[in-house]
Amino acid sequence: MFASTITSIIVFATFATFPPIIFAGSTPTSSGEFKCTPQKSHTTYPNQCRILEIFNYLANGSDEAFFAQVAPDVDWTVMGTHPLAGEYHNRTIFIADTLERLANTEDPSNPLTLSVTNIIGGGNEEWSVQELHVLGSCKNGLVFDNRYAWATRWNTEGVIVQARAYLDSALVATAITENESVEHHYYDQRTSLMDGPIGLNCVAPS
Ligand SMILES: *[C@@H]1O[C@H](CO)[C@@H](O)[C@H](O)[C@H]1NC(C)=O
Ligand SMILES: *[C@@H]1O[C@H](CO)[C@@H](O)[C@H](O)[C@H]1NC(C)=O
Ligand SMILES: CC(=O)N[C@H]1CO[C@H](CO)[C@@H](O)[C@@H]1O
């Protein structure tokens, strides 16, 4: 009884402290930050100001608010040739296998930040493209300065139902290969899995 209470506290503390959030808050005024032009008329899909608001949740540590706008059975493909690449069909698994795996390689004293540099489309277009800048350091000091382009398909409720994420594969592969703890757990439930340099060393979360 006593021991199990201690265990619960330790488990809770572990999850509550790392990774606390996927991206640490970035300075909203940093140069290159996207500014949307407000649109007054109603659009079928989220307009650029709404898309910016949704992505700013991810940028400022409000992960739950961001992922509330992603369908639980989202079809999310991470493009490229690196250990995180593949097609995911489940929001929980996508988060654990890509964003949290990467966050696990970061140096907590210089965590990864995300900022939105451009948004293309949206409004009456079903698809939009978000150009993102992710910056921070990995545990071994590797500067993680990556540019992402996420092509997203929205439904009429303003929820992302499909995405194709393009990024610098070589940098992601280096970050994972050089910094991932062998004890870091994630799922392995992708289709069209692309083997990375460290192969399929997946362990189901306990
Ligand atoms: C994060 O961004 C959202 C959307 O722009 C905003 O509503 C929210 O207040 C921000 N939260 C923090 C903690 O900055
Ligand atoms: C996603 O995977 C998690 C973990 O296996 C599971 O609990 C959840 O029900 C799945 N969600 C969907 C929409 O399939
Ligand atoms: C080169 C380097 O510092 N690698 C580290 C990356 O992170 C793992 C997990 O914390 C360490 O074991 C490595 O030493």
From TrEMBL:
It comes from the Eukaryota. Residues 1-24 form the signal peptide. Keywords: Signal. The keyword Signal applies. InterPro entries: NTF2-like_dom_sf (IPR032710). This is SnoaL-like domain-containing protein. It comes from Oidiodendron maius (strain Zn).
